[in-house]
Amino acid sequence: MNKKLLCAALLCGLGVAQAASAQTFDDRWYVAGSTGVNFQDTDRDTEDSIFGTLGFGKFLNPNWSVEMELNYQNPDKSENPNLFWSQYGVSADARYHFRNADSKWWPYLRGGLGWQRHEEEFIADPTLPPPADGYPRQHEDNNFAVNLGAGLQFDFGRVDLRTEVGTRIDFDDEQARPANAQEDYFTDLLASVGLTVALGPEPAPPAPPAPAAPSCADQDDDGDGVNNCDDKCPGSQAGQTIGPDGCPVPVTIDLKGVNFDFDKSVLRPDAVQILGEAVEILKRYPELKVEVAGHTDSVGTDEYNQKLSERRAQAVYDYLTSNGIDAGRLVGPVGYGESRPIAPNTNEDGSDNPEGRARNRRTELNVQN
After folding, report:
1. pLDDT tens digits for 85-126?
2. Which domain holds residue 75?
3. In terms of CB atoms within 10 Å, which end of the chain has fewer, N or C?
4. What pTM did the predictor assign?
5. For the residues of 46-97, what is the DSSP string, one character each?
């Protein structure tokens, strides 16, 4: 009968394994209770009996748990069931669980140390009448014990189911029997089914890792195409021509061919077509703002050339505004005189360079944004 109970306990646990729900590592304290059959060592001269336990434990990590446990059993004596015999004790046990944190069920091994107390009634010589007081004699003893076992645990969340088989080596070396019949220890087999119930609120899920701070190499706050690490001029405006350092690059709209006759500020017919193309560029990019700049060659005084460059810039300025370009987009007109040549006014031997001077008699549209 007792062997059938053991098998039923283990099969019961296996039958519900697939119904158990997965749960991550739960480090709450728990209470545990179990009941089962204590198959007594035959040398005890006691019958197998039901036993119960009550424990208090905690998982230290997904694989290790520790538990304090109380146990009690009250078997009948084989030779006289009317004589009282009981055993109870306490133990400290560790279990190693073979599982990952999200396992639904897992096997484990148990090991621990404990203390057991025995209380039993006996009659010194059963062939003699009972003692004069009418009561049998009593033997009590305390002793050390070792627990070893293996089991399966099924995770339902707050409540877990355990099925376990194990042995308790009970170092009881003094019994109520003749000296020549004393035993050094007893080995009991125990099979049980139990529950653990976690205490306290459900553990909070682990906080998600904080997102990595974005790198400046991945950011472009002003949208100029240069990342923040390399951008030495944050805050670029839309439409600006930007260099690799993120700073605006001065750009000149090519007015090559808009040159002037010597000492003149009147637009030549061949310059009108070129300025017409510049007007189309400015209309195509309405966000552009340009400086209208005039230049001269080096013939004449600085003061004269300054005035002449201003008149040349004014001629281009007037053409642009008269052809639909808003004056608010134009800076100037500005004259730079002979201070910014783009070609030599004289040759290396000091002689006049007419071609170079012709190139320096020019106007430019310098982009400002």
Report:
1. 899 999 999 999 998 867 889 999 999 999 999 888 877 665
2. 2-198
3. N
4. 0.50
5. B--EEEEEEEEEEESSSSEEEEEEEEEE-PPBSS-TTS-EEEEEEEEEEEEE
